[in-house]
Specification:
By secondary structure, the chain is mostly beta strands. The protein has one domain: Beta-galactosidase, Chain A, domain 5 (Distorted Sandwich), CATH 2.70.98. The chain contains 2 helices and 24 strands. The mean pLDDT is 97.
Length: 307
């Protein structure tokens, strides 16, 4: 709900969008600060095949499924226990929930460390073959939530390629080089510098809303991205075991959401850096697999580190 971080002068501000009370989340933007599952991001035509069987899901984003629809993990209440420096949350999703096979048991731990990190650790098990893709969906503004723009934030993403998208922001299956495109963040780049270029990938998303293919080994816990807000001096590093990073530049924020202290959250006033497997992975055999089998344990870890 909130994340307080000091600037270069030691002054603290809350840097995530959200609401003052838990009750407001039920009628507001359920993605603010949420754990997303069973399958984060989009699934084309609200369907996928697994072991020769076709599974039909809820279409909640035109004809596609976004963040698992109305049964998504952001829509439910989790059980919770307090732990040293953090909390443990758990939830059981029954077989057939949202159209997904298998009884899924999910666990998420949020921990604050002495290294100025928010560490999120995910685990899940299933009693039948299924697909799983979990992520964290905070909307960040390092100048402070309610600040009108993230276009002056400076972003670096350690990725040479990204997933090409088409209408509906569905991946085509092609992995494009970032070279000579506005999606090249291999060097620190102001987000607003190229966000309005005439480039078909930006046109589809009304800005950035793409998955970057991280330059890291499978399951390696590595630095994926770094974002800096020059005015405050706040810097956030994103570390993850996941193969992909969805960078979303707040293109669909429209000011209708009124958050903490009644602030209006306007167009491009926040960004998301969602560590994940690639969107629509079950429909693209060449993408890293999101299949979870019985007796296996889904595991990933992501850390937002402040320096």
């Amino acid at each position: 709900m909130s994340l307080w971080v000091p600037d270069r002068k030691g002054q603290f501000k809350d840097i995530v969008l959200g609401y003052d009370t838990p009750e407001e989340y039920f009628s507001g933007n359920l993605y603010f600060g949420a754990t997303i599952g069973r399958f984060a991001n989009r699934l084309a035509n609200a369907t996928f095949s697994l072991n020769g069987k076709v599974y039909q899901l809820e279409a909640n984003n035109d004809r596609h499924t976004l963040h698992s629809g109305s049964s998504g993990f952001q829509q439910v209440l989790w059980s919770m226990s307090e732990e040293t420096n953090g909390v443990r949350l758990w939830y059981e999703s029954p077989d057939g929930d949202g159209g997904f096979p298998g009884h899924l048991k999910a666990e998420v731990r949020y921990e604050l460390t002495e290294a100025n990190e928010l560490v999120i650790t995910y685990k899940a098990t299933t009693d039948a073959p299924t697909v799983v893709n979990l992520t964290h969906h905070s909307f960040f503004n390092l100048a402070g939530e309610g600040d009108p723009s993230i276009e002056n934030h400076i972003l670096t993403i350690d990725a040479d390629r990204f997933c090409e998208i088409g209408e509906g922001l569905i991946p085509s299956g092609r992995l494009l080089s970032v070279h000579d495109t506005p999606c090249d963040f291999r060097q620190p780049t102001r987000i607003g510098e190229r966000i309005d270029w005439r480039y078909d990938q930006l046109k589809f998303a009304k800005g950035y809303d793409h998955n970057w293919v991280l330059n890291k080994k499978d399951h390696e816990f590595a630095l994926a991205a770094l974002v800096e807000e020059p005015g405050s001096g706040r810097v956030m590093e994103v570390w993850t075991t996941e193969p992909g990073l969805q960078f979303y530049s707040g293109n669909f924020l429209d000011g209708k959401d009124r958050g903490k202290d009644g602030k209006s959250y306007t167009y491009r006033s926040a960004l998301c850096l969602e560590t994940q497997h690639f969107p629509d992975s079950p429909n693209h055999p060449d993408f890293p697999s999101t299949v979870l089998m019985p007796q296996e344990v889904y595991y990933q870890q992501t850390a937002y580190r402040f320096v």
